[in-house]
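Hi everyone,

Forwarding the result from last night's run.
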Amino acid sequence: MAHQMLLTLTDQEYAALRAEAARTGTPLEAVLHAAIAPLVPAPAPDQSPMTEQEFVEYLYHKGVIMNIPTHEPLSPDEEAELEDLAQLFAGGKMASDMVSEDRGPR
């Protein structure tokens, strides 16, 4: 990603940058980038990106997710529990049926 910025320089600052660019034979933008480069931290060489498993564990320890997926199929007891919860929270009629009933006879 690139960002653009409007930078206001005094005449002396601009002259110094132009003189440095002329001395080194590089574009003015390159002189500015070279001046800013020491301010930008270099990435740690030993720090590699997280694996998917490390990321999931990080989210778990931060409390963002409640469990770490194992990608194993559910046991029959767990499937039955999920079905019971689905029936419990499903209520009664589907919303589309209630809307049709509210419209009355055609």
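Helices lie at 11-24, 28-36, 52-62, 76-90, 95-103.

Cheers,
N.
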